[in-house]
Amino acid sequence: MNTYIAVVFHSDAEARLALRKLWVMDEAGDLTVHGAAVVRRDDQGHIRVADRSSDLGMSTAIGVGVGALLGLLAGPVGVAAGIAGAASLSVGAAAGVGAMAGAAIGITADAVKEDRRETAIDEAFFTLKHGQSAMVAEISEDYTALLDDAMQPLGGTVYRCLNTAATNAAFGDSYYSRYLYPYDYPPMGY
Amino acid sequence: MTKPQTVLEMVRHDAQDLHRKISANLAKAASASWADVEAVQADAAALSAKMKTLAKDQAQAVQDGLKAAIARLEASAKVVKTKVGATSAEIHHANTAMLEGAHEAALGLSQAVAAARSKLAHAIEPKAEPKPEPKSGTSKVPA
After folding, report:
1. Could you tell me if B39 lies within 8 Å of chain A, comparing CB atoms?
2. Cα separations (Å) of B125 from B43, B98, B100?
3. Contact A28/A173 with Cβ under 8 angstroms?
């Protein structure tokens, strides 16, 4: 089963540990990682990608791709916000990677969540609150319990979205996967 | 103890290493040289050859992905020609093209690894016990 995942944590350090754990699981053959990165939403609501400290020149591209991914995990309304945000980003400069996309996703996600609460639909829903970090990835897994059990002790909440032709079509030209690291990397600090 | 690596997994490591090297070259920005580009080109050619051999044994969907990645790697290699005094823009262009190829190779190989692991997982997973058939001639409980 090919899946997009986001595992949300309260701290950046936990998300980094989760990234390491994910690749250890890959090495053990528990699942296969196609690409992964750590992202953080700061106190101003901006989403930043923890790329390698040496990869500053690639920051904008990575931000655009992950913005689309977060939008996908945030649901149909979030997808629209993510892609719109990503488009705005490509016009913007490298500084503040994912800022607009992040803000758009955050606001939309919170609003939709509130609406769902009102209609009393209890459903898993991805949202990255201010100050939270997430490990995002595209993986293949045969047993979802393996990842769930590994992330629970680290304090993470796992969100999944099936990787299908329909979901990928939502990305349009900004198909994100090429911007996630296809190997374990030490994420840059903030 | 480290898990034994399959040939597929080892070639995937090669693709990941190639991606790392090209990323490092790109990160050098102005100080990157054409010699750096040529060094990774040799690795890309070796990777492409290994992938061609591996692709033959894969399921059709995986094979298609690997073939596309090989084509991308070979196309990026054409961008790299011996060049004395290449500008930093030309070096950046060559590295970017090579990175695209390396990424596609890493992705294609990880899909192949995932397919192989999935096949193995399903082969060894415990099968559900079939429900026992009621024995013929079993007498009914009298009403």
Report:
1. no
2. 38, 40, 37
3. no
The nearest CA of chain B is from the CA of A149 a distance in Å of 18
B33-47 residue pLDDT tens: 888 888 888 899 999
Which pLDDT belongs to residue A175?
Answer: 63
Q: Contact A52/B27, CB-based, under 8 Å?
A: yes
CA angle (A163, A165, A171) in 5-degree steps: 80
Backbone angles phi, psi at A48, to 5 degrees: -125, 145
Helix residue ranges per DSSP H, A5-98: 12-28, 59-73, 76-91
Cα dihedral A61/A178/A36/B24 (nearest 10): -70
- Token pair in block for residue A31: 């699942």
Q: Which two tokens stand for residue B101?
A: 């190829």
Q: Closest Cα to residue A31, out of B7, B113, B107, B66?
A: B113
ipTM topping 0.85: no
Tell me the pLDDT tens digit for each residue of A42-93.
887 777 777 665 454 444 444 556 666 777 676 554 433 443 343 333 222 2
Q: A101 Cβ partners below 8 Å, 6+ apart?
A: A47, A63, A64, A67, A68, A70, A71, A81, A82, A85, A86, A88, A89
